[in-house]
TrEMBL record:
GO molecular function ontology, one term from the record: ATP binding
PROSITE patterns: ABC_TRANSPORTER_1, ABC_TRANSPORTER_2
Keyword terms of this UniProt record: ATP-binding, Nucleotide-binding, Repeat, Sugar transport, Transport
Protein name, UniProt field: Ribose import ATP-binding protein RbsA
C-alpha cells in the first residue's frame, strides 16, 4: 500500500547564495519518516549547506521548507530542534575543556537540569555503551578523549535528543568497523521506530549497508534520487564527479621488490599497545596499515616519528640505524621522516593562524631551510592544487579537503624520504581523495617511501603495494598481490584465519 502521508521534511525550489556563489540552486528534496536517506556528492556539491538549512544554522535565499506538509521558518537551531530536526555535523561541536557530562548537559533537550535529574544521563550512557564507548567516563575532559571517543560522545549527544529527523554528517569517519556496525544497529532501530535519517558519508560500503534511498548532488543541484541498488558504484561516482570508478586509483607499478629499503623497523614495541612489530618500506612503495581502531597501528606511526617515550626496537633509515627520540630528530634532513596525524584540525593545523603560518610549522627547527620563504612551499602547493583566496587567510576558511592539502604541503616542502600518513582521506570528498591518491603514487614513483594507515579497505587494496593488518598491537597478516582482498583484510582485522599463506607464523 502506497504511503500517502506528506514527507516529514520537504524542500521546494531551495537556493542558497553566498555573494556570487550558488551553494544550492533550485533544489527540490524530501525525506520520509522511517527511512535512511543517503546524500552523496563531492565537497562543494551543496550537501553541507543543505544540512545547515535543515538544522537552522543557515536560511535559504529562496524557496520554502515544510515539515509534515506545513511551511516552516527555521531561523535558528532552536527552531529546528522544536520540530525534532537534529544534526550531528562532521566538525564536532563538543567543548574541549568541559567534561563529557557537561557537554551532554549543554546538548540536553528542554530544561537541561531536569534532563540531568531524570533518566537522561543514564540514557546517554546506555547509548555510549551500545556503540563501544563504555570506557568513556562522564567526568572525563573531552580534550583528553581520542578522536573516535569524541565522535562517540557526539553521536550519543544527538541520539539522546530523540529526534524525528536525525542528520549524520560523516558521523562514522573516525570510527572502527566494529563500532560503525554498532552505530548502524542504533540508527536502524531509530529508523524502524519512525525516525527519518539523513546520512552523509564518503564511504560507499557504509551507504550500501545503511541507506534505503540515495540522492546525489553536484554543483549545488540534486542530480538524481533513487532506491539503493538502482545504480552501481561506478554509475554513482560518474554522477558525483564525472569520473569512472577505474579512474579513482592510479595504476600500481611492478618490480619494487629489489628497490632500496628506506625504512626498516625491527621488533618495535611500546607498553602493551605495540608488540614486536617488524616491517620495511622500499623506495617507491606505498605500504598500508590496517586493522580495527586502537589495535596499535596509530601508536606505531606515532612511535616511528618520536612521539612516544620508552619505545623499544630498532629503526633504520636508508640502512643507517637511527635513534628517533623526538619529531625534531625525525624531521632532520639526515632522517627526513614526515608525519600527517589523524585529526587535521587539532593535531595537524592551528586553525586561527593563516595558511602561510601553518605551512611554516614543519620547517621550523630545520637549520638548512628558511621556514619563512614562500618559495619553499610553491612546488607542493602547485602539486596539490590548493584552492584558496590568499595565503594570508586563516586556514579555517578552507574546506576540509583543502585543509588536508595544507597539512600535506607543509611536509612535502621538506622533501621527506618516508611519509607516515594516518588516515589522510578521512572525511574528504571523492574527487579530492582521487587527487591525493594520484599525488601519493606520484611521490612514490619519485622515490618516496610511504607508510599509510587507513580505515578504508579499498585504499588498502587499490592504493597500497602491500598491507599489514594489526590486531591487539601486533601484525597478524601481511597481504599483497592476489592475497590483498576485502575478505582477507576483514578476516585479519577480526583475527580470523582465512588465508594461512598470508599470515605470520
Amino acid at each position: 500500500m502506497t504511503d500517502i502521508r506528506p514527507p516529514l521534511l520537504e524542500m521546494k525550489n531551495i537556493s542558497k547564495h553566498f555573494g556570487a556563489t550558488k551553494a544550492l540552486d533550485g533544489v527540490d528534496f524530501a525525506c520520509r519518516a522511517g527511512e535512511v536517506h543517503a546524500v552523496l556528492g563531492e565537497n562543494g556539491a551543496g550537501k553541507s549547506t543543505l544540512m545547515k538549512l535543515i538544522a537552522g544554522v543557515l536560511q535559504p535565499t529562496h524557496g520554502q521548507l515544510r515539515v509534515d506538509g506545513q511551511d516552516v521558518a527555521l531561523n535558528t537551531p532552536q527552531d529546528a530542534l522544536r520540530h525534532g530536526l537534529v544534526c550531528m555535523f562532521q566538525e564536532l561541536s563538543l567543548v574541549p575543556d568541559l567534561t563529557v557530562r557537561e557537554n551532554l548537559l549543554l546538548g540536553a533537550p528542554g530544561a537541561g537540569l531536569g534532563w540531568l535529574r531524570g533518566t537522561g544521563l543514564s540514557d546517554a550512557q546506555d547509548v555510549l555503551n551500545r556503540i563501544g564507548g563504555d570506557q568513556i567516563k562522564m567526568g572525563a575532559r573531552v580534550a583528553d578523549l581520542t578522536l573516535p571517543q569524541r565522535q562517540q560522545v557526539e553521536i550519543a549527544k544527538a541520539i539522546m535528543k530523540k529526534p524525528r529527523l536525525l542528520i549524520l554528517d560523516e558521523a562514522t569517519s573516525a570510527l572502527s568497523a566494529s563500532v560503525v556496525d554498532r552505530v548502524f544497529e542504533l540508527v536502524r532501530e531509530a529508523r524502524d521506530g519512525g525516525t527519518a535519517v539523513l546520512f552523509i558519508s564518503h564511504r560507499f560500503h557504509e551507504v550500501e549497508a545503511l541507506a534505503d534511498r540515495v540522492s546525489v548532488f553536484r554543483n549545488g543541484q540534486r542530480v538524481e534520487t533513487f532506491l539503493k541498488g538502482a545504480h552501481d558504484y561506478g554509475e554513482i561516482i560518474d554522477m558525483m564527479v564525472g569520473q569512472k570508478i577505474e579512474e579513482l586509483f592510479p595504476q600500481k607499478p611492478a618490480g619494487l621488490s629489489n628497490a632500496e629499503v628506506v625504512l626498516d623497523v625491527r621488533s618495535f614495541s611500546w607498553e602493551d599497545r605495540v608488540k614486536d612489530v617488524s616491517l620495511s618500506v622500499r623506495r617507491g612503495q606505498i605500504v598500508g596499515l590496517g586493522g580495527l581502531d586502537g589495535q596499535g597501528q596509530g601508536a606505531f606511526l606515532m612511535g616511528l616519528f618520536g612521539l612516544l617515550r620508552k619505545a623499544d626496537g630498532t629503526t633504520a633509515i636508508a640502512g643507517q640505524t637511527s635513534d628517533i627520540t623526538s619529531p625534531k630528530v625525525a624531521k632532520h634532513q639526515d632522517i627526513a621522516l614526515a608525519y600527517v596525524p589523524e585529526d587535521r584540525k587539532t593535531e595537524g593545523l592551528i586553525l586561527d593562524q593563516s595558511i602561510q603560518e601553518n605551512l611554516e610549522l614543519a620547517a621550523l627547527g630545520r637549520t638548512d631551510l628558511d621556514a619563512g620563504d614562500a618559495a619553499l612551499y610553491s612546488g607542493s602547493l602547485d602539486q596539490l592544487a590548493l584552492k584558496h583566496g590568499g595565503l594570508d587567510l586563516p586556514v579555517s576558511s578552507l574546506s576540509g579537503g583543502n585543509q588536508q592539502k595544507v597539512v600535506l604541503a607543509k611536509w612535502l616542502a621538506l622533501k621527506p624520504r618516508c611519509l607516515l600518513l594516518a588516515d589522510p582521506t578521512r572525511g574528504i570528498d571523492v574527487k579530492t581523495k582521487t587527487q591525493i591518491y594520484a599525488i601519493l603514487r606520484q611521490l612514490a614513483d619519485q622515490g618516496t617511501a610511504i607508510l599509510l594507515l587507513s580505515t578504508d579497505y579499498e585504499e588498502l587494496i587499490q592504493l597500497c603495494d602491500e598491507t599489514h593488518v594489526f590486531f591487539d598491537g601486533a601484525i597478524v597478516a601481511s597481504l599483497k598481490g592476489a592475497e590483498l582482498t576485502p575478505q582477507n583484510i576483514i578476516a585479519a582485522t577480526l583475527n580470523v584465519a582465512t588465508n594461512e599463506a598470508a599470515r605470520h607464523a
